[in-house]
């Protein structure tokens, strides 16, 4: 049996073509894919052939944030029904390495992650019409939400995990740098966690315009108003916590200047090597903590989206059919108008 896939061969060499698929085996589910979001890593694969040491070294089907409808159940699968909308957790820890056994599956030594070029052979992803996946990775979506909303479970899970790194945030004053999809979902997760003041910075007005709907109390365009953060830097800084979702040197330097002594910085955005203000890190006794991926947070994200306690609709800016995958990736690269760009597949249909 054949299905259409979006396969990347090299930098800006993306083709929609046919591939084989089989019926689900024991413990597996056949999904009619419905919606899939283009992530920053997908965009780096398309625009640059990779990021940092992670390079596209062989053809890869991209896509790790997606939803679909259950079309067939393999032997022994329970808890799912044909026709049900599910969000797919792309993360597949092995369960038996030393980190998995230490309850740190995020750091699994044998991690398989859909749509990732980190390993060889690459792990193919979900930009396709039909896909067979382990049932354990399918999380049922309830309520009146769309397939596009369900496909946002993966990036929301990333942000829930990041927000959890900062501890109790009730009433906290927080700075978020970068108002892309991850930055905006961090804002939503902060609001859910009870943060008080949430200030968001970016270089683009279009990105900042979406921030209030996600929970921001103030937005600052640091390109047109570069001095707006100066009052927050008085008396050794005022923010309790900061989340850097931009991985830009100027933004990080502004964070170090604006955060109070013994404040916490959570690093969400990634880049190559950069110069850091080490004196501020030491002098203010700042806690600077990294955050990557998620584990238990995926199920929490599905619940928050299903109930719309976190409404992800404001970040979904564009939708393209699978046949328009190249146009979708080009649109995703234009931050002046785009936020979360999604693909829809031939199986997509409204919830009955």
What about the largest sheet?
7 strands, mixed
In terms of structural class, how would the helical and strand content be classed? alpha/beta
CATH class of the largest domain: Alpha Beta
**What would you give as the CATH superfamily of the largest domain?**
Medium-chain alcohol dehydrogenases, catalytic domain
**Tally of individual domains:** 2
- Radius of gyration, whole Å: 20 Å
Molecular structure report:
The chain is an alpha/beta fold and 352 residues long. The chain folds into 2 domains: 2-152 and 312-344, Quinone Oxidoreductase, Chain A, domain 1; 165-290, Rossmann fold. Helices cover 24% and strands 29% of the residues. The chain has 11 helices and 20 strands. The protein has helices at residues 40-48, 98-101, 147-150, 153-164, 181-192, 205-209, 211-214, 249-258, 278-283, 297-306, 325-332, and strands at residues 2-10, 13-20, 28-37, 50-51, 54-55, 60-61, 65-73, 85-88, 91-92, 112-113, 130-134, 138-140, 174-177, 198-202, 218-221, 239-244, 259-267, 287-290, 316-321, 340-344. The radius of gyration is 20 Å and the shape is globular. The two termini are 27 Å apart. The model has no long low-confidence stretch (mean pLDDT 95).
Task: Offer a few descriptive terms.
single chain; 352 residues; alpha/beta; Quinone Oxidoreductase, Chain A, domain 1; Rossmann fold; 2 domains; seven-stranded mixed β-sheet; six-stranded parallel β-sheet; 24% helix; globular
Please give the structural blueprint.
Layout: E1 2-10, E2 13-20, E3 28-37, H1 40-48, E4 50-51, E5 54-55, E6 60-61, E7 65-73, E8 85-88, E9 91-92, H2 98-101, E10 112-113, E11 130-134, E12 138-140, H3 147-150, H4 153-164, E13 174-177, H5 181-192, E14 198-202, H6 205-209, H7 211-214, E15 218-221, E16 239-244, H8 249-258, E17 259-267, H9 278-283, E18 287-290, H10 297-306, E19 316-321, H11 325-332, E20 340-344
Parallel strand pairs: 13-14, 13-16, 14-15, 16-17, 17-18, 19-20
Antiparallel strand pairs: 1-2, 1-6, 3-7, 3-11, 3-20, 4-5, 7-8, 8-12, 9-10
Helix pairs in contact: 4-5, 4-10
